[in-house]
Amino acid sequence: SILLDDNSTFTGEKTALPNANSVRGFDVIDTIKTQVEAACSGVVSCADILAIVARASVVQLGGPTWTVLLGRRDSTTASLSAANNNIPSPASNLSALISSFTAHGLSTKDLVALSGGHTIGQARCTTFRARIYNESNIDTSFATSVKSSCPSAGGDNTLSPLDLATPTTFDNKYYTDLGNRKGLLHSDQQLFSGGSTNSQVTTYSANQNTFFTDFAAAMVKMGNISPLTGTSGQ
């Protein structure tokens, strides 16, 4: 449903706070869908395309592969409020993150593994400004370097990589960063801040294969959250 634009019957999810100026690449999916429709019309949903592209992207960047279960149908509606309420905020603390994932049948282990997706991608200055200027659980030199591109006022949409060392490689450096107090988002560093998830972060930091295995399993599990199938959806 995130692909749907606003129309007369609903306001879509693209302008929800966690998505606005953040989620990108819709044109890529549109292009793929156009080409797939030309090859075999009415067979492959956009939802399945998103699931396949997620895996392809991870593999292309050096990460693990997994079997993508297919047969999802597309939603015909979207919910701005659902996106605003259900997507965890970068300001979330550990208990809020655990609760958010648990509500969708995902374990704390899944939370830590899926957060490793932040080994790629970028975040806007507005999402981590409070952390780099106000928090103590952060490496001083790291905070200083990020401040150079994220001023205390202005520059809200300036981007910084979530993984400073290898921002375009799918690896376990995200967890190494957390161990060194170099998590960019508050919600990232919460995974290694003296709480129940510290040991799992340490494990992934030391063993990339374990992270890859758990990430792949969690992606399949997440892909099974209430998919539209059969006669539901489009």
UniProtKB/TrEMBL annotation:
Ca(2+) 1 binds at residues 1, 13. Pfam families: peroxidase. Binds 2 calcium ions per subunit. Disulfide bonds join 125-150. Heme b binds at residue 118. Gene3D superfamilies: 1.10.520.10, Peroxidase, domain 2. Belongs to the peroxidase family. Ascorbate peroxidase subfamily. PANTHER family: PEROXIDASE (PTHR31388:SF247), PEROXIDASE 72-RELATED (PTHR31388). This is peroxidase. It comes from Picea sitchensis.
